[in-house]
C-alpha cells in the first residue's frame, strides 16, 4: 500500500488530536460495556479506507448486519481499545495488542469517540486506529487486503469488506480522493433539522419513508425517537474485489442490496455502524456531511440519564429493550 497522501495525513492528525468529552463508559457495569474498532488504512492512492464486517448468521439478532469489528468487554479493567482489539483478533485475525504483527505492519491507536447506546442497553465505545502498512525508512509496503485482513473466523463473520472513508460524508460515492483532492466545505452541508440537535443518539428506531433515494450510495430518513428527530443513515457499498469471505461461504449470511439496474450488488451499512463511521469522518476531515444529520456525537447524556432511572444495571436480562416510554422518561430529566 502507498503512504498516506496529504489529505489523509491531515485527517489522521485530526483524529490523533481529538479529545472526546467525559464518558459514562466506565460508570456502567462491565456487563453493559462493548467496544468497536474503526480500523483505517491507506489504499493505492494514499486515501483512507475503513474495514467493515458482515456478522455471521450464528450471532442471533445481528445476522446479516454490517458492523465494525468489536464486542463485549471481558473484565472491568479491560480498556475499550483492549476490548476492540481482542474482538478484532477473533473476527478478522488482526493480531491483538500484545501480539506481534508481520513487518511492516503496525497499528496506531488514534482516539476514542463518545459512547453510543444500543437498544439492548449496551454502551458501545468506538475506537479509531490506523493500520500502517508502509515503512518510510525502508520503503517496504504491503497490502493489508492480501497479507493481513483476510484471516477470518467463520463462526463470527460472514465477510470482510472495505469502503472509502471520505465517502461517508457524501450523498454520492463518487471517485476516491487521491492526492489532488479538494475538500472545500459544502455550504449546505451543516444541515441539522428542527429538534435534531439533541443530547442523545440513535437507538435503532424504525427508519421508514426514506427521503433521499439516490439509488447507489446513500439513503436517509428522519424518525421520531423520545420526542426528538433522529437521522437514520443507509450506505450501499459495492461488493467488489475488496471483499473476503470464509470458505466455504454459505449464501444468505450476508445482506446484499442490488443496484437499481440490477447489475452490482452492495453491502448495506446502516444503524449505529453508519452513525459511528459518519461521526469519525466528520472529525477526520473537519467537515459536516452533505446529507442531513444529527449534530451531536454519541449518547453520553442519555446514558447518564438512564443510569439515574435505574437502567443499565449489572444483571442483563433477555427482555432488556429500551422502549420509547423509557426514553421519553429519561429525556425529561434535567
Task: Give a quick summary of the entry.
Helix content is 18%, strand content 24%. The protein contains six helices and 13 strands.
Explain this structure to me?
The chain is an alpha+beta fold. It has a single domain, classed as Nucleoside Triphosphate Pyrophosphohydrolase (Alpha-Beta Complex). Helices cover 18% and strands 24% of the residues. The protein has 6 helices and 13 strands. Strands 1, 2, 3, 4, 5, 6, 7, 8 and 11 form a 9-stranded mixed sheet that branches. Helix 1 crosses helix 4. The protein starts with 5 loop residues before the first helix and ends with a helix. Pfam families: NUDIX (PF00293). Its cofactor is Mg(2+); Mn(2+). InterPro entries: CoAse, NUDIX_hydrolase-like_dom_sf, NUDIX_hydrolase_dom. This is Nudix hydrolase domain-containing protein.
Amino acid at each position: 500500500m502507498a503512504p498516506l497522501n496529504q489529505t489523509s495525513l491531515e485527517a489522521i492528525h485530526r483524529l490523533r488530536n481529538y479529545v472526546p468529552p467525559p464518558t459514562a463508559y466506565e460508570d456502567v457495569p462491565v456487563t453493559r460495556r462493548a467496544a468497536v474498532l474503526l480500523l483505517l488504512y491507506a489504499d493505492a492512492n494514499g486515501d483512507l479506507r475503513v474495514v467493515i464486517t458482515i456478522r455471521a448468521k450464528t450471532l442471533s439478532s445481528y445476522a446479516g448486519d454490517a458492523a465494525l469489528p468489536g464486542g463485549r468487554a471481558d473484565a472491568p479493567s479491560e480498556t475499550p481499545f483492549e476490548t476492540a482489539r481482542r474482538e478484532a483478533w477473533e473476527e478478522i485475525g488482526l493480531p491483538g495488542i500484545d501480539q506481534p504483527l508481520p513487518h511492516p505492519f503496525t497499528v496506531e491507536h488514534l482516539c476514542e469517540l463518545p459512547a453510543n447506546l444500543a437498544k439492548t442497553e449496551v454502551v458501545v465505545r468506538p475506537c479509531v486506529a490506523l493500520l500502517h502498512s508502509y515503512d518510510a525508512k525502508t520503503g517496504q509496503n504491503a497490502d493489508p487486503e492480501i497479507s493481513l485482513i483476510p484471516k477470518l473466523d467463520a463462526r463470527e463473520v460472514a465477510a470482510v469488506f472495505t469502503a472509502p472513508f471520505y465517502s461517508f460524508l457524501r450523498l454520492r460515492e463518487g471517485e476516491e480522493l487521491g492526492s489532488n483532492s479538494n475538500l472545500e466545505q459544502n455550504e449546505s452541508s451543516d444541515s441539522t433539522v428542527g429538534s435534531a440537535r439533541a443530547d442523545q443518539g440513535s437507538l435503532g428506531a424504525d427508519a421508514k419513508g426514506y427521503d433521499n433515494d439516490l439509488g447507489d450510495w446513500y439513503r436517509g430518513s428522519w424518525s421520531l425517537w423520545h420526542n426528538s428527530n433522529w437521522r437514520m443513515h443507509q450506505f450501499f457499498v459495492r461488493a467488489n474485489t475488496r471483499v473476503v469471505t470464509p470458505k466455504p461461504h454459505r449464501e444468505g449470511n450476508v445482506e446484499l442490496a442490488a443496484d437499481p439496474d440490477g447489475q452490482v450488488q452492495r453491502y448495506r451499512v446502516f444503524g449505529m455502524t453508519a452513525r459511528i463511521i459518519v461521526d469519525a469522518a466528520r472529525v477526520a476531515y473537519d467537515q459536516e456531511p452533505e446529507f442531513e444529520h444529527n449534530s451531536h456525537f454519541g449518547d453520553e447524556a442519555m446514558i447518564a440519564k438512564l443510569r439515574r432511572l435505574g437502567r443499565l444495571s449489572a444483571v442483563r436480562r433477555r427482555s432488556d429493550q429500551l422502549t420509547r416510554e423509557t426514553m421519553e422518561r429519561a429525556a425529561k430529566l434535567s
